[in-house]
């Protein structure tokens, strides 16, 4: 009798253990972290702004989730190689995509042959950070503000060189949208990154560009470039003397911010999505990380899956309008 009871208890315990091991990699109980290490997949090469952000975030997110977090770079095709990889990954919460607004919201327009939909084929987790862009002019530009720039462009149609950082980037869409509203034409010259673009701007080889606050702030303060406006709803605390685009009656461009956001495979369970979203929010609320992000001109924006999806779809619609207007000439 005792032997039979012991045997039943052993079988019950063994079954429970096997069931535990078979569970997906989510919280074992309320408040616990993931059961396995987390891999952040990034669609850009090491050393850039996107890479710097996720590597800053990783140790804080590791603490919030109670698991090691590693960053895996899968650069190429404006972030879509990484998106496809995560789309096809196991939906257990251990593979987390961080990608940019250019790739997620505009990718389907700039890459018409893309064999998947970044919006429909991935599941939103949360926005990470966002940053608004500054429209800056070369030191020799014969304009000191947006109205003067428009007048100059009208007098020299198609001659002002825009040092554009990447095809299909937010930088390109901002300038396209500005030109459409102002009724002007410029010469888009594509650069492989912000560094080379800034070098030519400082040398007056290009006349203007859009740049992140963190990249441009020092040059603006030292008078090496001219700050024409910031594409934002209001002035930035870092650059209080630079007018916001809304002050000139411009619409839509204030929405065109650079952002980084997290996504997972489409069929990832709700519990895991909430766990990851809460973990990112907790990590970015850390005062030490907030200081570091502020120094990069980044604003924490973690607000959950629903808010991220709403932002993603709104941006996608706006970029579509700009893309179609440009295609019509």
Automatic annotation (TrEMBL):
Top-level taxon of the source organism: Bacteria
CDD domains: PBP2_Bug_TTT
Pfam families: TctC
Transmembrane regions: none
InterPro entries: BUG, Bug_dom1, TAT_signal
PROSITE patterns per the UniProt record, alphabetical: TAT
Sequence similarity: Belongs to the UPF0065 (bug) family.
Protein name per UniProt: Tripartite-type tricarboxylate transporter, receptor component TctC
Species of origin: Paracoccus litorisediminis
């Amino acid at each position: 009798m005792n032997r039979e009871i012991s045997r039943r208890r052993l079988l019950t315990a063994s079954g429970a253990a096997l069931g535990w091991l078979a569970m997906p990699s989510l919280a074992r109980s309320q408040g616990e972290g993931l059961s396995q290490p987390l891999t952040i997949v990034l669609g850009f090469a090491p050393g850039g702004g996107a890479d710097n952000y996720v590597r800053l975030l990783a140790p804080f997110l590791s603490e919030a989730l109670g698991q090691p977090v590693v960053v895996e770079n899968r650069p190429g095709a404006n972030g879509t190689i990484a998106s496809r990889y995560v789309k096809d990954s196991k939906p257990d919460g251990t593979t987390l995509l961080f990608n940019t607004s250019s790739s997620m919201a505009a990718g389907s327009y700039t890459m018409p042959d893309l064999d998947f939909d970044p919006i429909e084929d991935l599941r939103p987790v949360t926005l990470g950070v966002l940053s608004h862009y500054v429209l800056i002019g070369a030191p020799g530009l014969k304009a000191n503000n947006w109205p003067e720039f428009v007048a100059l462009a009208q007098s020299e149609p198609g001659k002002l060189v825009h040092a554009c950082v990447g095809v299909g980037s937010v930088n390109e869409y901002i300038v396209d949208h500005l030109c459409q509203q102002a009724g002007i034409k410029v010469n888009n010259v594509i650069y492989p990154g912000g560094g080379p673009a800034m070098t030519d701007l400082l040398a007056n080889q290009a006349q203007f560009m859009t740049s992140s606050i963190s990249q441009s702030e020092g040059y603006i303060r030292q008078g090496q470039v001219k700050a024409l406006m910031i594409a934002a709803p209001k002035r930035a605390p870092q650059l209080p003397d630079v007018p916001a685009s809304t002050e000139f009656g411009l619409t839509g461009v204030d929405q065109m911010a650079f952002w980084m956001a997290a996504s997972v495979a489409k069929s990832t369970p709700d519990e895991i999505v909430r766990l990851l979203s809460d973990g990112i929010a907790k990590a970015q609320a850390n005062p030490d990380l907030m200081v570091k992000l502020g120094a990069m001109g980044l604003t924490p924006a973690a607000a959950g899956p629903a808010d991220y999806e709403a932002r993603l779809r709104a941006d996608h619609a706006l970029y579509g309008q700009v893309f179609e207007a440009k295609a019509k000439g």
